[in-house]
Every structure is written in structure tokens, then in C-alpha cells.
Please model this.
Amino acid sequence: MRCVILRISAIIPAFNEEGRIEGVLDTIVTANIFSQIIVVDDGSTDNTSQIAGRYPIELIALPYNKGKAEAVKQGLSACNGEIIVLLDADLIGLTKEHILHLVKPIQNKETEMTIGIFKGGRLLTDMAQKIAPNLSGQRAFNSYLAEEIIMMDTSGYSIEVALKKLIRKRGIKTKWVILQNISHVTKEEKLGFLKGTQWRFKMYRDIIKYWFN
Ligand SMILES: O=c1ccn([C@@H]2O[C@H](COP(=O)(O)OP(=O)(O)O)[C@@H](O)[C@H]2O)c(=O)[nH]1
Ligand SMILES: O=C(O)[C@@H](COP(=O)(O)O)O[C@H]1O[C@H](CO)[C@@H](O)[C@H](O)[C@H]1O
Model:
């Protein structure tokens, strides 16, 4: 049987992640899984671009903060892999195995999209993902879905909820995969309680607005 090696692209949207992106890129680069790694610096005002630029990646630096949805779409427009993996820039404890868990079911043609669910990392982040698994930023999918995702009328934090609607509308075969011992840095930890809570409510607003649109 002929074995076809599929190219795999990673997209990492990043807004002011200078303290966290290094850990994520260390794993992504050394995992030796990706033929293309795209970091989209979404108008950061810190050293996110400079730090990302030390790695063998393609950097897209947006001139101002356009929101996660736009950052992901910009990454998708530059992708050349047959499989695309989305990973947040603030993950704690990302390993090669986590990435393989996301990618393998697509390579094996078991499904068209995987959604990674945190387990055993941190109680609070685990709980959030249990309540709203469809909001997870960790995914892999076939690149034939990219064009349709780029065309979605989504902004801010509504990319995941838009994907949920797309999955339903198009009947995209989706599989949840458990990602053990991984979590992310919360908004309150990044920005402090007040600003973090404001950003959290902005995120909820984006999601709810899209959902009822
Ligand atoms: O305007 C934004 C907000 C967030 N992000 C990135 O999107 C991912 C998820 O965002 P965030 O960490 O704020 O969400 P959380 O995981 O806290 O829900 C992270 O890599 C962020 O750096 C982005 O590119 N632009
Ligand atoms: O899990 C969640 O409820 C949120 C919020 O995470 P935190 O409360 O900041 O740990 O995080 C996710 O949702 C966002 C919106 O869909 C995604 O963009 C993030 O990637 C995802 O981590």
C-alpha cells in the first residue's frame, strides 16, 4: 500500500503572549510534526513577535489587535498543509503527544476535525472545558475546510462558536480527544483581576452575540 505523507501546518494566534509563547513554541518546533508553523501576532504591544522570531516559524504580524478570529483567518490564508492544527499561545504543559492526539484521527481518516479537551491539568480550566467543550482553541482539521472558515462572518472570540455552527450546518465529522495534564493561563492571571474579568466578559459577549445572530 502506498503511504502518503500529509503536510501539517500549525497556526498559533498570539496577543501579548511574551511570557508564554516560548514554552509552546519549544514543544511545537521540537515535535518535528509540522512542515509549517505560523505565528500570527495579533497586534501585540509586548515582545511576542521578537520572541516568536527566534524560532523557525513564519511570522504574520498584524498592525493592530484584530481579535482571535481574524488572527486565525490570517493564518489560514497562509497555510499550505493538508492538515491544519490550531493551538493557543498560552498553553501550559503542551507535549508532542497532545499534538499527535489531535492529528492522528485526521491522518487515519477517522474524522474531519478533532477538538482537544483538557483533563487533569487544572481544576478550573478542566471545568470550563467540561461545561463548554466546543470553545476549545485546540483543534486539527482537514485543510479543505479552511476556505469555508475564512469566509465565516466571525470576529473577536467568536471563532470557536462559529466553528460549532459550521460543524452542525455542514455535518462535519468531529471527534473530541482528551488532552491530559495540560491547561492554559487564565485572563485574570495574565491581566490582573479587573482587566482579566473585563476581557472575560468581552469574550462571553462575542460568543453570545454570534450564537444568537
Ligand atoms: O485579541 C486576541 C485575543 C486572543 N488571542 C490569542 O488567542 C488565544 C486564546 O485567547 P485567550 O488566551 O485570551 O483565551 P482563553 O484561553 O483565556 O480563553 C491565545 O493564544 C491568545 O493570545 C489573539 O490572537 N487575539
Ligand atoms: O474555556 C473557556 O471557557 C475559555 C476561557 O478560558 P479561561 O477562563 O481564561 O481559562 O477559553 C476558551 O474559549 C475561547 C473562546 O471560545 C477560546 O478562544 C480559547 O481558545 C479557549 O481556551
In short: Residues 193-211 form the longest helix (19 residues). The chain has a mean pLDDT of 96. The pocket of XDX (ligand 2) is lined by residues 68, 88, 125, 128-129, 132, 135-137, 157, 160, 184, 186-187, 203 (CB under 6 Å). The chain has one domain: 8-211.
